[in-house]
Amino acid sequence: MTAIDFTTSVPSPARAARVAAQRVQGTARQFAAGASPQVATRPAAGASTRLRLTLRGRRVLAVLAALPAVIALSAAVIGGGAALASRDAGAPAGSFTTVTVAVGDSLWSIAEDIAPDRDPRDVVDELVRLNALDSVVVQAGQSIAIPASYDSGR
C-alpha cells in the first residue's frame, strides 16, 4: 500500500524555528572556535514539505469522508420506511362507491352529477385525491371511487 503524499509550499513553523536555532548555534560555535563563519544557505523558495499520512491517518480520513453518507443512509432507513407503507387501514367499507366512466365523461361532469349543490372544483379535487390520480383526465371504462357522502345520481 502506498502512502498518500501531500505537498505544501509552506514549511511547518516548528521545523522553521528548529532550523533557525540550529543555524544560530552553528554560527556561534564557529566564532568560538576561531574559524571563519560559513554563510548558511536557505532552502529554495519553492521547496516544499512532504506530508505523509500514516495508516491510522488514512483510516481516520476514510471514516470522515464516509460519515455523511452513513448519516444520510441511517436517516433514510429510520425515517423513510414510514413514508412507503403506513399502518392506516384505509377507507372503511361502505365509505365510497365506484362509478365507471362513460364515453365523453370528465371528472367535472361526474362532479356535477354526484354533487349538484356543491362547487365542482372542490368535488373534482376530492375525487383526484381519493383516487390518487396524476391529472384530471379520465378514460372511458375507468372505475372512479366516489365518496358515499355525495348523493349518487348516476
From TrEMBL:
Source domain of life: Bacteria
Keyword vocabulary terms for this entry: Membrane, Transmembrane, Transmembrane helix
Domain called LysM: residue spans: 97-146
Transmembrane stretches, start-end: 60-85
Pfam families xref list: LysM (PF01476)
CDD domains: LysM (cd00118)
PROSITE patterns xref list: LYSM (PS51782)
Annotated protein name in UniProt: LysM peptidoglycan-binding domain-containing protein
Organism: Microbacterium psychrotolerans
Classification lineage: Bacteria, Bacillati, Actinomycetota, Actinomycetes, Micrococcales
